[in-house]
Amino acid sequence: MTQNKGRTTEKESKERKEREARVFSNVNPASLDTALGCKYGRLIELIRSSERTAIAFSGGVDSTFLLKAWKDSSDIPPLAVFVRSEIIPEREAREAEELRRVERAEEILHDRGFSQYRVRCHRDVARIEVPPGEMSRLLEPDVRDNVLQQLRDLGFAYVTVDLQGYRTGSLNETL
Questions:
Q1: How many domains does the chain have?
Q2: Tell me, what's the pLDDT at 21?
Q3: 20: pLDDT confidence band, cut at 50, 70 and 90?
Q4: How far apart are CA 69 and CA 120, in angstroms?
Q5: Is residue 42 domain-resident?
Q6: Which pLDDT does position 30 carry in this prediction?
Q7: CATH code, domain with 144
Q8: pLDDT for the residue numbered 175
Q9: How much is the average pLDDT of 105-124?
Q10: Measured between alpha carbons, how far is 142 from 2 in angstroms, rounded to an integer?
């Protein structure tokens, strides 16, 4: 980027914003500082230029973030590999399995065409959040029955719909 006395031109700024808009299609770039934004952009470029890839999934923050970034930026599904070992604490193994179950549950909603969704896991309860305008579609008998059966197949004994609808940070509301 060319600089004029330490400042970028309006054209360069516009080009950078357009580039960021393409790269950050699933991330709000305003929430990232410049260095972090550049690193995330490079990660997305690497993902999009890769072919089939395996991700060693521990269930921790790093591998969960990488798996989510891959899922949001590539049409090629990664192979997420989780190995149970004596050196991996049982708690981490359970958390990884729970995260995978939530991911599968959200894929069910995605495959049914919902625009935004979240599945919150409360032990054996799946709490579904979709935008209020899409709740009636979720409750249509064929959709409801299909989603219910698939979530039960994932091991959820109970499936509920959050009447407040999809919103970010709902797990923190009671804190």
A1: 1
A2: 47
A3: very low
A4: 19
A5: no
A6: 53
A7: 3.30.70
A8: 64
A9: 93
A10: 57
Asked if 111 and 88 touch (Cβ cutoff 8 Å), the reply is no
Both structure tokens of 29: 């770039």
Residue 34 — φ and ψ, nearest 5°? -60, -45
Q: Among candidates 141, 72, 66, which has minimal Cα distance to 110?
A: 72
Question: 35 — phi, psi (to 5°)?
Answer: -65, -45
Q: What is the mean pLDDT of the chain?
A: 79
Q: Residue 71 domain-assigned?
A: no
Is there a contact between 121 and 98 (Cβ–Cβ < 8 Å)? Answer: yes
Considering the domain boundaries, does residue 69 fall inside one?
Answer: no
Whether residue 163 is contained in a domain is answered as yes
Which amino acid, one-letter code, is at 63? Answer: S
Contact by Cβ (8 Å): 121, 102: yes
Whether 166 and 117 have beta carbons less than 8 Å apart is answered as yes
Question: What is the rounded distance in angstroms from the CA atom of residue 47 to the CA atom of residue 24?
Answer: 13
Q: How far is CA 58 from CA 13, 50, 89, in A?
A: 39, 21, 10
The tokens describing 54, both together, are: 């395996």
The residues that bridge with 5 in the sheet, in sequence order, are none
Domain that holds residue 117: 89-175
Backbone angles phi, psi at 119, to 5 degrees: -115, 120
Who's near 104: CB < 8 A, 6+ residues apart?
154
Radius of gyration of the chain (CA): 20
